[in-house]
Each structure stands twice: as structure tokens, then as C-alpha cells.
């Protein structure tokens, strides 16, 4: 496949600790995780090396220190919402990741399986997985694994790795993980919704890797930013969000995390359609700053959800039209 992300000749990881001259990509490991699969979707294996990391924080650190060129992190799931581990790292409360930005996104269809070395679910007393995976399979677990202990681990592929040879344990992970680790699939497609999708962000820290404004036919961009407001000012959040309406910038995502400076104070995250390098967005952000204590643009990138969203809208339109004629 052709990589979505073409590195400039100077955009490579710090090779003082690496023997590979190719750009490197950090992902949440071990091998066969959904993050690994998303990374392979984004980057050509012939032109990049892939570096598994133990935690999402490790990916941010690897990107910030330039020990890798790119990082791939999960951001949100269509069933279970925001990945709070990633949001907390974007909060950057310790100012550890000031150079790290979002330069791309990828959407991955996620279909979970229950994997085990056991022959059947009857012998399973423990299920391992990532908290997001548990959240995406609540309905199936409530019916088929009620009372079975759930144990959180750092990734679905880590869960699969841990249950190898343990007939009393199972993991929620992908079919790819079953193949890699030689596990039985006790149940397939156990996610709550058939269109279960996780959105990943591609991170970088080298300025030359920032995504340019998309100019191709049918292409569009999005921008992610974080900001804080004075919680003592009535309507402060309303005033800040109204800027997007006034400048006709459509919001695609909004989230918040505790600031940890004061109880019940928050850092807000907003994603909107548009690129921070365009004049209209620059003017809008200047206006937004009037209502914020601080504001940070976390990156602009090509909108890869647009095609998926258009497919959904087309399907919905067909259903509605069918209802009219039936």
C-alpha cells in the first residue's frame, strides 16, 4: 500500500539509539493490537519501521523525544466514547509534550473476539482486556459472562499474550491476535454495535511534518484544540463556543477533562472543520482567545471521517426513502 504520510528526507527519528535509517512509527503494543493494525493502515511497511510501546504515554514520550518519527494513538470510539488516557496526555499538565501535535487521523472498524486456550467459555473464570474493549462489549458480557472477573490491561494484544496456555482465562481482542498467539476464538463479533469504529490520531513533533491545507477535490481538514476558561464568569463556555457558530466552523467533537488545578475546573477539547493555517480560521481563533484563559492548537489534519460519514448519511437517506415508499 502507499503510505498516507510521506516523510521529508530530514524527518526521521533520532538514530543515535536506532540502527534503522527508515522513519519509525510507535504504536500501543504488543504486535496485533488495534493500534498496530491502524498503524499498518497508515504507513507502508516497506518504508517505515514499527515500534511497539507499553502505554499510550510511552508513545507520546517517544514522539516528543524524537526517538520515533510518528506515533499512533486511539482517540475515541463510536460506541464507548473518548479514550481518556489519550485526552489526559493532550492536557499536558506537566508541559512534557509541548512539541507534539496531531498530523493525521485514521478510522478502524473494530470487531472483538473472545480468545482463550480453553475449549469453551464454561472453564473461563477471568477475562483480560483494555477498558475500552470491555466498554464496547457490555451487552455480550452481561448475557454470556455474568460474574466472570474482568481484569484491565494496557492493550487487547497484551491481554491475548497473557492468556496463552491458561485454560481459566480469556481475552477480548481481535482475530489477528488469535492468529498471532495461537488462541481459540470462543465467540466472534461480540461488540455491542456492528459499526463499532475507533478513531486514531497520528502524532509527530517535527515542524516539517505538520499537515498542509488539503486542496484535492472532495478533501477537507479538521483542527483539534484545547482551551480553558474562567469558571467564575457566567456564560464563559457559551461565549467561547459561540465563536464557532459566528464564524461558521462546524464542531465535530467536544470533550473535557479535569484541569487538576482546582476542583471542578476543566480543560475543554474541541475539534472543528477547517485548517489552522487558513485565514478564516486564524481570525476565528484570535476571537476565541478573548474568551479563554489559554488556548492551544493541537494540530490540523485531513478529514478521514468524511467518507465514512457520507456512507452513513447515504444509507440513512436510503432507509428514509424506503420508508416513504413502503
TrEMBL record:
<comment type="pathway">
    <text>Amino-acid biosynthesis; L-phenylalanine biosynthesis; phenylpyruvate from prephenate: step 1/1.</text>
</comment>
<keyword id="KW-0028">Amino-acid biosynthesis</keyword>
<feature type="domain" description="Prephenate dehydratase">
    <location>
        <begin position="24"/>
        <end position="205"/>
    </location>
</feature>
<protein>
    <recommendedName>
        <fullName>prephenate dehydratase</fullName>
        <ecNumber>4.2.1.51</ecNumber>
    </recommendedName>
</protein>
<dbReference type="InterPro" id="IPR045865">
    <property type="entry name" value="ACT-like_dom_sf"/>
</dbReference>
<feature type="region of interest" description="Disordered">
    <location>
        <begin position="1"/>
        <end position="22"/>
    </location>
</feature>
<keyword id="KW-0584">Phenylalanine biosynthesis</keyword>
<feature type="region of interest" description="Disordered">
    <location>
        <begin position="306"/>
        <end position="326"/>
    </location>
</feature>
<keyword id="KW-0057">Aromatic amino acid biosynthesis</keyword>
<dbReference type="GO" id="GO:0005737">
    <property type="term" value="C:cytoplasm"/>
</dbReference>
<keyword id="KW-0456">Lyase</keyword>
<dbReference type="InterPro" id="IPR001086">
    <property type="entry name" value="Preph_deHydtase"/>
</dbReference>
<dbReference type="InterPro" id="IPR002912">
    <property type="entry name" value="ACT_dom"/>
</dbReference>
<dbReference type="GO" id="GO:0004664">
    <property type="term" value="F:prephenate dehydratase activity"/>
</dbReference>
<dbReference type="GO" id="GO:0009094">
    <property type="term" value="P:L-phenylalanine biosynthetic process"/>
</dbReference>
<feature type="domain" description="ACT">
    <location>
        <begin position="225"/>
        <end position="302"/>
    </location>
</feature>
<dbReference type="Pfam" id="PF00800">
    <property type="entry name" value="PDT"/>
</dbReference>
<dbReference type="InterPro" id="IPR008242">
    <property type="entry name" value="Chor_mutase/pphenate_deHydtase"/>
</dbReference>
Amino acid at each position: 500500500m502507499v503510505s498516507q504520510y510521506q516523510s521529508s528526507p530530514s524527518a526521521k527519528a533520532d538514530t543515535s539509539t536506532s540502527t534503522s535509517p527508515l522513519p519509525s512509527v510507535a504504536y500501543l503494543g504488543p504486535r496485533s493490537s488495534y493500534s498496530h493494525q491502524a498503524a499498518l493502515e497508515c504507513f507502508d511497511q516497506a518504508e517505515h519501521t514499527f515500534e511497539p510501546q507499553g502505554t499510550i504515554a510511552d508513545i507520546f514520550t517517544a514522539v516528543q523525544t524524537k526517538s520515533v518519527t510518528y506515533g499512533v494513538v486511539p482517540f475515541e470510539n463510536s460506541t464507548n466514547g473518548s479514550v481518556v488516557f489519550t485526552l489526559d496526555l493532550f492536557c499536558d499538565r506537566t508541559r512534557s509534550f509541548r512539541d507534539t501535535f496531531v498530523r493525521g487521523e485514521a478510522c478502524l472498524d473494530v470487531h472483538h473476539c473472545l480468545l482463550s486456550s480453553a475449549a469453551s467459555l464454561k472453564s473461563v473464570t477471568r477475562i483480560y482486556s483494555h477498558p475500552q474493549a470491555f466498554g464496547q462489549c457490555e451487552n455480550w458480557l452481561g448475557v454470556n459472562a455474568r460474574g466472570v472477573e474482568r481484569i484491565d490491561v494496557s492493550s487487547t494484544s497484551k491481554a491475548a499474550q497473557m492468556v496463552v496456555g491458561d485454560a481459566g482465562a480469556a481475552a477480548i481482542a481481535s482475530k489477528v491476535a488469535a492468529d498471532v498467539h495461537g488462541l481459540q476464538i470462543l465467540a466472534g463479533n461480540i461488540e455491542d454495535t456492528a459499526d463499532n469504529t475507533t478513531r486514531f490520531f497520528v502524532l509527530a513533533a517535527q515542524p516539517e511534518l505538520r499537515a498542509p491545507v488539503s486542496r484535492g477535490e472532495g478533501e477537507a481538514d479538521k483542527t483539534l484544540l484545547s482551551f480553558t476558561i474562567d469558571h467564575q464568569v457566567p456564560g464563559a463556555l457559551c461565549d467561547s463556543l459561540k465563536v464557532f457558530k459566528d464564524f461558521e466552523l462546524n464542531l465535530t467533537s467536544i470533550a473535557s477533562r479535569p484541569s487538576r488545578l482546582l476542583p471542578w475546573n476543566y480543560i475543554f477539547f474541541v475539534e472543528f472543520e477547517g485548517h489552522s493555517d487558513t485565514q478564516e480560521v486564524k481570525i476565528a481563533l484570535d476571537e476565541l482567545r478573548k474568551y479563554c484563559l489559554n488556548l492551544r492548537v493541537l494540530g490540523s489534519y485531513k478529514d478521514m471521517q468524511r467518507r465514512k460519514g457520507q456512507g452513513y448519511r447515504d444509507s440513512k437517506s436510503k432507509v428514509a426513502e424506503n420508508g416513504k415508499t413502503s
